[in-house]
Design goal:
There is one protein chain. The protein is α+β, with helices and mostly antiparallel strands and 189 residues long. Helix content is 27%, strand content 50%. The protein has two domains: 1-33; 41-188, Immunoglobulin-like (Sandwich), CATH 2.60.40. It has helices spanning 2-32, 54-59, 121-125, 128-136; strands spanning 41-45, 62-73, 78-81, 84-90, 93-100, 103-105, 109-120, 138-153, 156-171, 178-188. 24% of the residues are buried. InterPro entries: Lea14-like_2 (IPR055301).
């Protein structure tokens, strides 16, 4: 009888140890795969530049141009962000803004957000360096934004922020005007 009890206790301890090891392995694997944080990918497409002309930079106080932001969320959780504003700078000076409306980016998916950039052309004309760049045919701008919101992974919600910085070059002398951009993003939870 005592021999049977010892066997049952040993079997119970071995089973508990095996379950604990398997659970630990599964949790560590999930932590390094599914729950690993990935920075989103962001690409700017300045779709409205083709409608602008060089004269707009000379004659108008403000210029509004449509742009499409293509965001790819590589995480296994959705990100719901609040309204925010991206600030556009030239040579460290604020020359424009882009309001970005609140939205949700689904998990492991891409989405396009249409926004309208407002440039203060008058402010650019007041800067001698900007005038030289406009005359030479290209203008380099930087847009920064912080998107605050909540990340939801398997029903667990955590506050987070996505920091973005995009460097844009507008080729003003070309007809139609076109632009290139390069963006850097960082997700913090």
């Amino acid at each position: 009888m005592i021999k049977g009890k010892n066997y049952a206790i040993k079997l119970c301890c071995i089973s508990a140890t095996v379950i604990a090891v398997i659970t630990t392995v599964v949790l560590v694997t999930l932590a390094f795969t599914v729950f690993k944080r990935h920075d989103p990918d962001l690409v700017l497409y300045p779709t409205g530049l083709a409608k602008l002309q060089l004269d707009d930079f000379i004659t108008q106080d403000t210029i509004t141009s449509e742009m499409v932001m293509s965001i790819r969320n590589r995480n296994h959780g959705s990100f719901k962000f609040e309204n925010t504003t991206s600030h556009i700078t030239y040579d460290g000076e604020l020359v424009g803004w882009v309001p970005i409306m609140a939205d949700t980016i689904p998990e492991d998916a891409s989405m396009n957000i249409t926004a309208y950039a407002t440039l203060r052309a008058k402010k650019l004309r007041e800067n001698p360096k900007a005038i030289n760049d406009i005359v030479s045919g290209s203008l380099n701008l930087t847009a920064t934004a912080t998107m605050r919101g909540k990340m939801s992974i398997m029903g667990i919600k955590k506050k987070g922020s996505v920091y973005t910085e995009c460097h844009m070059t507008m080729y003003i002398s070309e007809i139609p005007i076109r632009g290139d951009s390069w963006c850097w993003t960082k997700l913090e939870i």
